[in-house]
Design the sequence.
C-alpha cells in the first residue's frame, strides 16, 4: 500500500511531641523488661534470633522479579555492501518491554522479556544505492516494528542486598514484525513535501532472531545485539542491512 502525504502545604513535624512519645515508650519498655526474670529474657532473645524471613518472594533480589524497561540506541556495523549503506548516528534502535527474572542462586538467574522493538535504517543516498532501487531521494528509510520475545541467562557478581546489583546477561530473542514500511521523502511543487510510504513488503522475512550480551548495574544496562537472520528473503538481490545494534537500557523500578 502506498500513500502520498503533503505536507505544592507541607505538614509540620512536631519534634517535641515525638520526643515525649519516645520517652514514654522507653519508660514502659523498661518497666516491662524489669518484670521479666532471666529465663524469660533468654526466651525473648532466642525468638528474636529465629525471626521468620519476609514471606514475599517478589523483589529485585528475591525469587521473582518483573519490571518495565526502555532502551534506546544506534544501529552499528557494516551493511553487506554499499548498495544498502546507512547513515550512522541517526539510524536508531528502540525497545519498550517487560522483563521477568527468576533467581536460582546468588550467582545465577534466568529470565524472559516480552515487548516492542523498533529499528529505523536511514539509507545513504548515493550512486551505489540499490535498496530497494537506485532512485536518489531527499530522505529514505526502512522502519521495522516488531513484537520481541527473549530469554536470557544472568550471572550476578558483587554484594547487592535486595537490589539488582551488577550482572552480565547472555541471551537471545525472536522477533515477529507486525509492520514494515519503506518511506521516501522528496520536495514537491510550490514548497510542498511529498512522502511516499510503502507497506506490505513481500520481499521481507516475517521472523528474525538475535543474540545479545548485556552489562548492567541496578537500573542501567548496556546491550550489544547481533542479528543472525536475514531481513530480506532469499532470491532477492538486496544486500543485507547492518546486523549490530548497541542500546542503553533503563529499568523502570525502585
Sequence:
Amino acid at each position: 500500500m502506498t500513500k502520498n502525504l503533503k505536507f505544592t502545604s507541607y505538614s509540620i513535624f512536631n519534634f517535641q511531641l515525638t520526643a515525649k512519645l519516645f520517652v514514654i515508650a522507653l519508660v514502659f519498655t523498661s518497666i516491662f523488661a524489669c518484670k521479666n526474670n532471666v529465663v524469660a529474657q533468654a526466651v525473648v532473645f532466642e525468638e528474636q534470633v529465629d525471626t521468620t524471613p519476609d514471606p514475599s518472594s517478589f523483589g529485585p533480589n528475591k525469587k521473582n522479579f518483573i519490571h518495565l524497561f526502555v532502551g534506546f540506541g544506534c544501529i552499528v556495523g557494516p551493511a553487506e555492501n554499499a548498495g544498502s549503506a546507512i547513515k550512522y548516528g541517526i539510524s536508531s534502535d528502540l525497545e519498550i518491554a517487560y522483563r521477568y527474572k527468576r533467581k536460582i542462586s546468588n550467582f545465577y538467574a534466568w529470565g524472559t522479556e516480552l515487548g516492542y522493538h523498533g529499528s529505523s535504517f536511514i539509507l545513504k543516498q548515493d550512486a551505489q544505492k540499490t535498496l530497494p532501487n537506485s532512485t536518489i531521494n531527499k530522505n529514505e528509510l526502512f522502519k521495522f516494528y516488531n513484537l520481541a520475545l527473549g530469554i536470557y541467562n544472568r550471572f550476578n557478581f558483587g554484594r547487592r542486598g535486595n537490589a539488582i546489583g551488577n550482572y552480565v546477561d547472555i541471551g537471545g530473542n525472536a522477533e515477529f514484525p507486525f509492520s514494515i514500511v519503506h518511506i521516501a521523502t522528496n520536495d514537491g511543487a510550490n514548497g510542498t513535501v511529498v512522502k511516499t510510504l510503502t507497506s506490505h513488503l513481500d520481499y521481507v522475512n516475517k521472523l528474525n532472531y538475535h543474540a545479545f550480551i548485556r552489562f548492567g548495574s541496578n537500573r542501567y544496562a548496556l546491550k550489544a545485539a547481533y542479528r543472525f537472520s536475514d531481513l530480506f528473503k532469499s532470491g532477492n538481490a538486496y544486500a543485507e542491512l547492518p546486523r549490530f545494534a548497541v542500546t542503553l537500557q533503563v529499568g523502570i523500578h525502585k
Observations:
- The CA atoms of residues 80 and 240 lie 5 Å apart.
- Residues 15-35 form the longest helix (21 residues).
- The first strand starts at residue 2 and ends at 6.
- The beta strands are 2-6, 64-76, 92-103, 108-122, 139-157, 166-187, 193-198, 208-217, 220-227, 244-252.
